[in-house]
Design a protein that fits this description.
Elements lengths: L1 H7 L14 H26 L8 H13 L7 H20 L8 H10 L5 H18 L7 H15 L8
């Protein structure tokens, strides 16, 4: 009976490899994944560190004036004059480091008379612009859309380094 039991058992064989992929395939897949991951990280870093284009005060002011021009018919002349005046004052402050935003128009024009980085035409244009704005804002002058267009035109000419318009 001992012989009969010994015949039922088979010899032990080596382990069977059930993994379908070859080791070189796994190595290539891991290397490809790491290469793709590294490329993605490099592109993200490069995208984040791209140079930021900084506009000059003149470019920013011209963009803002163009944007506010689209609202000329929607805003009251009072509101429009405030917006255009703010754009021009911010431009002068940024471009020439003058304290326009902290002074009244009269104070600023008096300071310009003493020392000015502007030409005579620019001073006249700026004076005319500020006086028109003050009329609309403080004297509550009954302005029209044409007055708003004139303000916008004067502000645009001043920012562009303008001269007086031919009369």
């Amino acid at each position: 009976m001992a012989v009969f039991l010994a015949q039922e058992f088979h010899d032990i064989t080596g382990p069977v490899n059930y993994f379908i992929l070859k080791p070189w395939m796994v190595f290539c897949a891991v290397a490809g994944f790491l290469l793709l991951l590294g490329l993605t990280i490099w592109l993200i870093k490069r995208w984040r560190n791209r140079p930021v284009v900084v506009k000059t005060p003149r470019e920013r002011a011209l963009d803002l004036l163009a944007r506010v021009e689209t609202e000329i018919d929607k805003l009251s002349p009072y509101e429009f004059s405030i917006r255009v005046s703010d754009i021009l004052r911010r431009y002068v402050t940024e471009q020439y480091q003058l304290p326009v935003t902290r002074q009244t128009s009269v104070e600023f024009l008096n300071a310009l008379a003493a020392t000015s980085p502007f030409s005579a035409d620019e001073q006249t244009l700026l004076s005319d612009f500020l006086n028109r704005c003050d009329l609309i804002k403080f004297a509550r002058y009954d302005a029209t859309v044409e007055d708003s267009r004139l303000l916008l035109d004067e502000a645009g000419r001043f920012v562009k380094g303008g001269a007086l318009a031919p009369v």
